[in-house]
Amino acid sequence: MSRDPLPPLEPLRAFVEAGRHESFLDAARALGRTPSAISHRIRALEAWAGTALFTRAARQVTLTKAGRALLRDAEAAFTRLAKAGQRLRREDSELKVSALPLILQTFLIPRLPRFTAKHPGIALRIDATNRIADFRRDAVDVAIRNATSPPTGLAVRKLLDVAGVPLCTPALAARLASPADLKSMTLIHISARPGGWTRWFKSVGLEDIKAAGDLAFDAIPASLEAAARGQGVALGLDPISRDAATSLGLVAPFGVLRSPESAYYLVYRKGDASRPAIKAFTEWLLAELAVFKLASR
């Protein structure tokens, strides 16, 4: 005789509470039931399973070997269901965004009031980090990543191409007639983007040169600040760095290369493509890029 492969949900819920405490009384209190109601549901689950889940004594119940195994699996399943429920409840009201510090500070933050005005029901929770978000583990809904090729295993929307651009004060720029003159400067590096200067020199037909000095920061905004204080030449990303460079009084002594070094992508779980909050954020972001002519041509 066949039977449903899925255990009955209500008896399983009673079993999990009773198994956690090895007490029908505690399970009854947690679920707002009577101990006899809990006992009845667990007997129904034991009948379905065809095995005892508890060893019963006068004033105590103890999980059997089968009961311990079921409790482990059931708790994991309920945890996954709880997380799925949390995502479902918040999908129209909250969106957690993982964004690189550069695009967050120079592009997103100045424009976020327009998103809030257009979508007042969606609360953004933004995590500024150079670490790549792990969608299997992290509580993140969308991420903005910079990469040389589209990320795999996720839904991907390309935002814009970017190219490396040396930036410095006008005083330092006056001493730079050609890229080869950078050997007399302090080059400011980004630890999160190793090899950036090497790639840039290669793009202008030069071997990686030995500069007069080197200075490193973990993020582009900090490197631009150091460049604005005359501490060296930073390697920004055009057009993302453009507004920040202008506000800091930085100039591009050699102009901007037209060959892109990498691109920014918006990524999210493939199963979340129909979520209203993600669709709203994606459409808004692409519109902002189009309006300000940041998208690649």
Folded structure, characterized:
The protein has 3 domains: 9-90, Orthogonal Bundle (Arc Repressor Mutant, subunit A); 94-161 and 262-291, 3-Layer(aba) Sandwich (D-Maltodextrin-Binding Protein, domain 2), CATH 3.40.190; 162-248, Periplasmic binding protein-like II (D-Maltodextrin-Binding Protein, domain 2, 3-Layer(aba) Sandwich), CATH 3.40.190. Helix content is 42%, strand content 20%. The chain contains 10 helices and 10 strands. An 8-stranded mixed beta sheet has the order 4-3-5-10-6-9-7-8. The protein is elongated and about 90 Å long.
Biggest sheet record: 8 strands, mixed
Overall domain count:
3
Given helix and strand content, the structural type is alpha/beta
Low-pLDDT residue intervals, each spanning 5 or more residues: none
Radius of gyration: 29 Å
Which geometry do the CA atoms define?
Answer: elongated
Instruction: Record the strand order, biggest sheet.
Output: 4-3-5-10-6-9-7-8
Number of helices in the DSSP assignment? 10
Fourth CATH level, the homologous superfamily of the largest domain: Periplasmic binding protein-like II
Instruction: Tell how many strands the DSSP assignment holds.
Output: 10
Topology as a string of helices (H) and strands (E): HHHEEHEHEEEHEHEHEHEH
By oligomeric state, this entry counts as single chain
What does the average pLDDT come to?
87
CATH class placement of the largest domain = Alpha Beta
* Fraction of helical residues: 40-55%
CATH topology of the largest domain: D-Maltodextrin-Binding Protein, domain 2
